[in-house]
Amino acid sequence: MASSDIIKLLPDSVANQIAAGEVIQRPASVVKELVENAIDAGATDICIIIKDAGRTLIQVVDNGAGMSPTDARMAFERHATSKIASADDLYSLHTMGFRGEALASIAAVAQIELRTMRRGDSVGSRLTIAASKVESQEACACVPGTNLMVKNLFAYLPARRKFLKKDAVEMGHIVHEFERLALVNTNVDFTLIHNDVTVHRLLHGSLRRRIGELFGRSIERQIIPLSTETSLVRLSGFIGLPQFARRRGAHQYLFVNGRNMRHPYFHRAVMSCFEQLTAADMQPSYFINFEVDPCRIDVNIHPQKHEVKFEDEQGIWQILVAAIKEALGKTNATGAIDFNVDDAPEIPAFSPDTNARATIDVDESYNPFERGIATDDRTPRQSDRTGVDWDSLSGRFNRERNASLEEVRSALNIIEQSRAATAGRQLGLDELPDQDMPAAKTDDIASTRQPGSYITVANRYIATPVRDGLMLIDRHRAHVRVLYERIMACIADGAIATQRMIFPETLTLGAADDIVLASICDSLARLGFDVSPLGDCTWAINGMPSALSAASPSETLTEIIGRVSQTGELPDTELFATIAATMARTAAINASCNMSEAETDMLVADLFKTSSPNFTPGGLPIVMTIGIDEISRLFN
After folding, report:
1. Cα gap 50→565, rounded to integer Å
2. Quick one: which of 49, 268, 364, 490 could link to 59 by a disulfide (CB 3.0–4.6 Å)?
3. Confidence check: pLDDT of 43 > 90
4. Dist CA 374 CA 388 (whole Å)
């Protein structure tokens, strides 16, 4: 007979490992939790030491309050915390942590060594833990504060350790987390060291200074202050000027009561203020701090505490939008009318007691139609009041026009021939197609057509009739597919040429992006990029792939770095595919590019020569067909 008791209480070590999956997702999560604990302990100087992007060591040293031997041991028990004592305390939080889960979760997946001492004590305490089990605790000599080392992260969860990304990507996440913590705690000195190299050394100061130290001094000239205070919220911080918006890599940070948060609703509020000032794909930078009554927000949403609920979201939305528009208006970011013009006409003040009169003398007898049109049986056309003989002038103009008409026709023919001959080079393709459309790889294209049967709509889509209805082609995406396959073919042949730049361009990156770029330099060299480090997160772009001669070097590299950061560790072939897709998207034509009929014909022809003409490398549709039945339904 089977036992009726099947529900068992999990051991604490197993429960802690399960909980660690929510709290500790990667090395950056450990850095966040340990630094927040140091800040809650009143530390004013925090040093973070990293080895192998956190795999081997994450060490946080602070000068905070320290702990007694009993507190040091209790800190690693699940749900043990000094931040709150009752549920009511959740609505008056002024600390970063309060759950009592972080240290227990870290101890479940790594080896811990802790040295801590309170001010006034003569001796400190040393504690070692592995897999949630206390191995030893003893007295030791140390300085006031806490020194906590996390060794061999995920050593007891091999599956989790296997799925960590490469060091450059994981270190990039650590740097991003460090930036969030440093921005919101400007009164604390921070040091970040990776593999014995100092990545950041920040001294306490103003928010503007901290932004410049993290992202480069040039950004201080690209941001403007934001400040307003109401009964609901007090807003402070900085927003970026519209002209410095970026397609990728914009610095966007929201804080509430000294805590980092992600809030899509308020992000949309910020973006709505820039809709008419930037292109749709551009992202402005912003650093905005919300100060609200703690009882009107809820931070107990997720173990990582990034999500925050506001009681007055709609009201704060309106205040935020008004504050940003006011800040932009003060700096003329939205444009202004200049009334102080030296040569402006003098406009007299209006007086109801005076009669309006013309300020210019008008000859009422003058008739502009007086000279008429000369005919064969009438008198020659008269000269006008200016004394110009219009008959003589018109005749001379007509003679000169007829004399040069042949020259104009000849010039137009030369221009047309030149444009057709260079159409392939303008699109980054090899040669013009034949006059007839080549056999397509889909039944939607008719085998024969008349030249010029393509119509360009809104400089974005190509429309052409097909057997089953009307075909629409997104020409930007079509060009992306064509360029992508050509770049991949060149990579396979090792035939990507580098075009040297006469004046090298400099690119300044954040610390996280600098680490990623350094890790992919060899791969970029195979793709035709020539970049070299100048120090202080600045790089020189000395050469670009010849296929990208029309693209912006800095924008292309920023796009590549962002894609590599998102995709993480990839084999070389997949990394090349990712970079090739970015290169193709950057160099492809856009809506501002006008195309001739020959260029349009050639683009469509080369699209249907590719291996996958219906989709971009990213899976977006290129070709759509509107069937006859659907067109009929449009006309009821």
Report:
1. 19
2. 49
3. yes
4. 15
Q: What is the dihedral of CA 581, 587, 591, 595, to 10 degrees?
A: -120
Q: Is 262 left (phi over 0), alpha (psi -120 to 50) or beta?
A: beta
Residue 392 has pLDDT above 60, yes or no: no
Reference 117, options 184, 54, 71; nearest CA is: 71
Q: With 0-12 CB in 10 A as exposed, 13-18 as middle and 19+ as buried, what is 400? A: exposed
CB 285 within 8 A of CB 243: no
With beta carbons less than 8 A apart as the criterion, state whether 276 and 329 touch.
Answer: no
- What is the C-alpha to C-alpha distance for residues 488 and 472, in angstroms, rounded to an integer? 26
Show Cβ contacts of residue 428 under 8 Å, excluding neighbours closer than 6 positions.
479, 482, 483, 486, 547, 587
Dist CA 514 CA 565 (whole Å):
11
**3-state per-residue secondary structure call for 508-542:** ECCHHHHHHHHHCHHHHHHCCCEEEEEECCEEEEE
Measured in degrees and rounded to the nearest 5, phi and psi for residue 469 equal 155, -125
E strand or H helix at 322, and its extent? helix 313-330
pLDDT band for position 97 (cuts 50, 70, 90): low
pLDDT value of residue 341: 46
**pLDDT tens-digit readout, 283-319:** 899 999 999 988 888 876 666 667 788 888 889 999 9
List pLDDT tens digits, range 235-251.
Answer: 999 999 988 888 777 89
- For residue 46, what are the β-bridge partners? 62, 190
Selected residue with higher pLDDT from 389 and 476: 476
CB of 459 closer than 8 Å to CB of 591 = yes
**Tens-place pLDDT, residues 202-215:** 999 999 999 999 98
Q: Which residues pair with 181 in a beta bridge?
A: none
